[in-house]
Design a protein that fits this description.
The protein is α+β, with helices and mostly antiparallel strands and 213 residues long. It contains seven helices and eleven strands.
C-alpha cells in the first residue's frame, strides 16, 4: 500500500495499470532482445549490452512525468556503483526529451511506438477520463501502425544477467513511489559473486585430468 496521499486520478491510473501489470515479465523469464536509438539517434542493442555484463534496465513514464524524472535522477546517481559491480544501466522512455538529457551518465533509449515496452508487458491503455490531464502535462500518445494510441508505460526496473535472464524485477503501478536501488545493488553484488564462483569452477574443471584444454 502506498504511503502517498490518495488522489482519484492516480487511483484510476493505477487500477488500469494493475490489470496490465499482471502479465508483465517477472524474475526467471528471459528479456526479449531489442535495438533502440538514444536521444541522439545512435542505436544500441540489448545483445551488445549483455556482451559486456549484467544490465539494469529501467522503464520510465517520460519527461512529462515529474515522478519519472525523479526516478531517472536516482538511477543516474547510482550509475557509478552499478558500473563498479560490472553492470550497464539503461533507461527506456516513450519519447525524446528529459530534464536530465545532458547530465545523465546513463544511456536513455527512445521506444517511440512502445514496442519494447509492450514486449515486456509494461503498457496500459490510459482511461479516457485522464487523457485531458495527461495531455496538459505534456504527454504525447505514441504512434503505432500509423495511429496514435493512449498507451502509458508502467514504471519498472529489471536486473538482467549475462544470459538475458531476469534476476530481479521491480514493477510498481503506483508511479508516485520512489525507486529504491539498494535492493538492486545488493542483488547485483550477489550476481557478480555467483558468476565469479562459476568461472572459478569452470577453470578448475578445465585444468582437472581429462578436463580438456
Amino acid at each position: 500500500m502506498s504511503g502517498v496521499a490518495a488522489d482519484p486520478d492516480a487511483q484510476l491510473a493505477m487500477t488500469a495499470a494493475s490489470a496490465a501489470a499482471a502479465g508483465a515479465l517477472r524474475a526467471g523469464k528471459h528479456a526479449p532482445l531489442f535495438s533502440l536509438g538514444d536521444m541522439q539517434g545512435r542505436r544500441l542493442s540489448l545483445e551488445r549490452l549483455l556482451g559486456r555484463g549484467p544490465v539494469v534496465l529501467h522503464f520510465a513514464r517520460g519527461a512529462w512525468c515529474s515522478f519519472g524524472e525523479r526516478d531517472l535522477a536516482s538511477l543516474a546517481a547510482h550509475e557509478r556503483e552499478m558500473a563498479r559491480l560490472g553492470a550497464s544501466a539503461v533507461a527506456i522512455v516513450p519519447c525524446a526529451g528529459s530534464l536530465f538529457d545532458d547530465a545523465m551518465p546513463i544511456r536513455t533509449l527512445v521506444d517511440a511506438d512502445m514496442r519494447v515496452t509492450r514486449a515486456f508487458g509494461l503498457a496500459f491503455e490510459l482511461p479516457a477520463a485522464l487523457r485531458p490531464r495527461y495531455a496538459s502535462l505534456g504527454y504525447e500518445p505514441p504512434v503505432s501502425r500509423g495511429r496514435a494510441t493512449w498507451l502509458v508505460p508502467i514504471p519498472a526496473t529489471y536486473l538482467l544477467d549475462r544470459d538475458g535472464a531476469i534476476a530481479l524485477a521491480y514493477i510498481d503501478v503506483d508511479y508516485r513511489n520512489g525507486l529504491d536501488l539498494r535492493t538492486f545493488l545488493t542483488a547485483l553484488g550477489a550476481l557478480r559473486t555467483r558468476e565469479g564462483a562459476g568461472r572459478v569452477t569452470a577453470l578448475r574443471e578445465k585444468r582437472a585430468p581429462g578436463g580438456g584444454g
